[in-house]
Amino acid sequence: MARALRIWLGLALLAAVAMLVALSVGSSAIGGAELLRLLFRPDASTASEVLHGLRLPRAMAAFGTGGLLALAGALMQVLLRNPLADPYVLGVSGGAAVGALGALVLGAGAAVMQLGAFGGALLSTLLVFAIAHRDLARLSAAGASDTAPRLLLTGVMLAAGWSALITLLLTVAPDAQLRGMLFWLSGDLAGSDAGAWPLAALALVLLAALPLGRELNVLLRGPALAHALGVAVVPLRRKLYLLASLATAVAVTTCGSVGFIGLVVPHALRLVIGNDQRVLLPACALAGGTLLLLADTAARSVIAPQQLPVGVITALLGVPSFLFLLLRRGGAR
Questions:
Q1: How far apart are the C-alpha atoms of 231 and 235, rounded to whole Å?
Q2: Cβ of 214: how many Cβ atoms within 10 Å?
Q3: Which of 101, 174, 309, 327 has an alpha carbon within 20 to 30 A of 253's alpha carbon?
Q4: 222 CB neighbour count, 10 Å cutoff
Q5: CATH number of 130's domain
Q6: Structural domain containing residue 97
Q7: Hey, how many other C-beta atoms are within 10 angstroms of the C-beta on 138?
Q8: Residues 88 and 94 sit within 8 Å (Cβ to Cβ)
Q9: Do the Cβ atoms of 169 and 32 come closer than 8 Å?
Q10: 184 exposed, middle or buried (CB, 10 Å; 0-12, 13-18, 19+)?
Q11: What are the pLDDT digits (tens) for 245-255?
Q12: For residues 192 and 58, is the Cβ–Cβ distance under 8 A?
């Protein structure tokens, strides 16, 4: 327990530093002493309006979204018993993208776009559950075969269908809307003005997943052994899928499609701190939030006042990092 507390405390300190950097860096920098003063005693100055009206909500949204993606990745990797699984692998992000882009094509506002994204993610979740229901039910029998590959295949095929619909929407979209749609697909936190919502969702998913830590450790050894040791495999898998889908849906609704956070963060932490889910899940929430927060800070400040899609930054960081982790793991073996 002491080791887990040290890990969480170290990651929390990194998150606090990243938050201060995100709040101070931008087109108009805010010094450390002034930043702390304005955080606790806002006034009518321009710096205070920038801090509380723009940077703080965006930083909170970035941290919450990154934590949700990393947590969803860790849960998906347990669900599919595959360390390379991604939060988007079961088509949830594709459904959210179709809902959001459909709202944009119809000329709807930001609120309707977010509702469309969440509705599309929910529809994708229900479709995968309906298609894979019979396979999941087979796990109720002791010694039943693992249906994770079948569930994965269902999600991949559904994601391919969503991808085709996304291409169709981009093709028929007016030119004036195309740039915004592409930005959203690449990940964009520029319009995030409600940071409390992803933070609340992160806390909810984490609190729901933590009591399952011991069962998750057993499930990693295989569904048949988990069933023999008294784990209710089918209800546990349904909880995992629902929690991962909820986390992914909120993340995609907040900032669009941001890749590699849910893949790289759990994989890297697993190599450093081990595979105990009771320690790994909170660590993923902290590290994922910190990584996306730093990536968003870079996206809005590298070529300020212009902004880059945050998904581009995470991809540029994620691809070489993941290749390094794979090479390191292969060399260790």
A1: 9
A2: 12
A3: 174
A4: 14
A5: 1.10.3470.10
A6: 63-328
A7: 14
A8: yes
A9: no
A10: buried
A11: 888 888 888 88
A12: yes
What digits encode the pLDDT tens for the residues 2-50?
888 999 999 999 999 999 999 998 777 788 788 888 888 888 888 888 8
d(CA 202, CA 282): 10
**Number of domains the chain is built from:** 1
Tell me what pLDDT residue 17 has: 94
pLDDT digits (tens, 9 = 90+) for 82-101: 777 777 777 888 888 888 88
Residue 39 lies in a domain: no
Closest among 118, 123, 125, 124 to 103, alpha carbons compared: 118
Q: Give CA angle at 286 (285, 289), nearest 5°.
A: 80
Contacts of 330 (CB under 8 A, 6+ apart): none
Residue 48 in any domain: the answer is no
SS3 39: helix
- The pLDDT value given to residue 193: 67
Per residue in 264-310, pLDDT (tens digit) is 899 889 888 988 999 999 999 999 999 999 999 998 888 777 788 88
Task: Let me know: does 195 contact 57? Beta carbons within 8 Å.
Answer: yes
**Contact by Cβ (8 Å): 93, 257:** yes
**Domain contains 167:** yes
How far is the C-alpha of 255 from the C-alpha of 24, rounded, in Å? 21
CB 314 within 8 A of CB 289: no
Please give the structure tokens belonging to residue 121: 């993610």
pLDDT of residue 66: 94
In a domain, 50, yes or no: no
Contact 145, 243 (CB under 8 A): no
Of 57, 68, 63, 54, nearest to 17 by C-alpha is 63
Closest CA to 98 of 137, 124, 62, 130: 124
**Least confident interval from 40-54, 141-155, 303-317:** 141-155
Report the Cα 244 to chain-centroid distance in Å.
9
Query: Which pLDDT band holds residue 64 (cuts at 50, 70, 90)?
Result: very high
